Amino acid sequence: MSYFKDYEKAKKFVEFMNMPEISESGRKTGTIKSIEFRNVSYTYPDGTKALDNVSFKINAGEKIAVAGQNGSGKTTIIKCLTGIYKPDSGEVLVDGEPVFENPSIKSRIGYVADSNQYFTSYRISDLKKFYKDVYGRFDDDKFEYYNKIFRVPEKKRISQMSKGQQMRTAFMLNMAINPDVLDYMFDVYKNSYGNADSRTHDYGE
Predict the structure, then answer these.
(1) Which CA distances in Å does 143 have to 17, 28, 54, 87, 200?
(2) pTM of structure
(3) Is residue 117 pLDDT above 80, yes or no?
(4) Which side of the chain, N or C, has fewer Cβ within a 10 Å radius?
């Protein structure tokens, strides 16, 4: 999400993230019981060691925020969790199953990056169709529910959107796939605290 200039905006964001989720069927989306990193290490091709023997476990219903300086490994943790990166060593497990190259697990994970590589000629309607083809759980009603809040013009092409509108679009699309795990990134108090940022992780009960 975009950065917040004052406490009240941050407070509203927290209140929004605690809103009840909806779906046409009314089902609860969270079915994952645990996420675990076991002695995970990852080094980038240039030799930068981003993660060194990282271990933790998160149980269902918990919300966590991973905070730290630029380059401390926050984004690498999320990219390992979403199966984008394969750890050099160790395991990333969701309900005891490895995430990397595991489509059945990855389809249950939503990921909102701080920059989004969408097809720039697409409109929102095109993106919704794309997500429906990829994610069988995509919920049109849920997308429309969130867009009543964010009010992103659906006729705009991605190339015509601001970065903030692209982030909101990505958030709505990922909420609409009814993920069991949602990872999203946002800058907090960027003006006041330089490049300090936060990576937030949430998954349902």
Answers:
(1) 15, 16, 35, 33, 21
(2) 0.62
(3) no
(4) C
